[in-house]
């Protein structure tokens, strides 16, 4: 009797582990979409900019769908839409909103790169660009990553200026501290030298060795006359 119960418990445990595995699998091995480290990009009008996007899928993919959307305060549009048949093929573009946009990169050789290049940038191109990927092999899970593009008339090196100012201030403060330390040391040195000289004078004039207590001149001065 207790044996049957044990077997039942073991089976239940197996079942539990299996279910847990099924539950965890899509979470730990799911599709990931990345636009790289910089989530904000600035570019100058009239130039071109690459908006990076890569994805990874541990399951592999088949008939994967991808698209880029654009969203600003007053507009939402799909910029480019396409599919990738499998891991050995390059993406096929099905829809393209603008001639200034081209799909760059490759999905062959595990590059999984679906970056787009935007040319002849206009100020109105400023906005949020989202790269979406949907993998039918993974329950049609959809993943996305967003990058903010700001079109400017010239790149201001604000960050550099700020860094330089901070560096200059920090450098200045450190320099000042070192200078103060040096001055202090120098002054202490001068004082010591003067006192040593004074002491020497006192010692030689009194003809008495009172350096043993290491006291500065003032005390020695008091003592000296009594002995002379
Ligand atoms: C960028 O915009 C500025 C200001 O509107 C303009 O003077 C300049 O010619 C533009 N640059 C290009 C390359 O279009
Ligand atoms: C576009 O962005 C706005 C503001 O961030 C947001 O409220 C809106 O839901 C977005 N639209 C779409 C379709 O994603
Ligand atoms: C994606 O492809 C573009 C164009 O070939 C390239 O410049 C970029 O470095 C690639 N990105 C990655 C992460 O490989």
Please tell me about this protein's structure.
It is found in: Membrane. Pfam families: V-set. One of its GO terms (molecular function) is sodium channel regulator activity. The protein has three helices and eleven strands; from the N terminus they run H-E-E-E-E-E-E-E-E-E-E-E-H-H. It is an alpha+beta fold and 228 residues long. Among the domains are: 123 residues, Immunoglobulins (Immunoglobulin-like); 33 residues. It has a six-stranded mixed beta sheet with strand order 2-11-10-5-6-7, with no helix packed on it. Strands 3-9-8 form a three-stranded antiparallel beta sheet, with no helix packed on it. The chain is elongated, with a radius of gyration of 38 Å. 14% of the residues are buried. Bound molecules: 2-acetamido-2-deoxy-beta-D-glucopyranose (3 copies). One 2-acetamido-2-deoxy-beta-D-glucopyranose (NAG) binds next to loops.
Note the topology.
Layout: H1 2-28, E1 32-34, E2 40-44, E3 49-51, E4 54-56, E5 64-71, E6 76-84, E7 92-96, E8 101-103, E9 116-118, E10 127-135, E11 141-152, H2 158-206, H3 217-227
Helix pairs in contact: 2-3
The structure holds 2-acetamido-2-deoxy-beta-D-glucopyranose (3 copies).
Subcellular location: Membrane
Keywords: Disulfide bond, Glycoprotein, Immunoglobulin domain, Ion channel, Ion transport, Membrane, Signal, Transmembrane, Transmembrane helix, Transport
GO molecular function, one term: sodium channel regulator activity
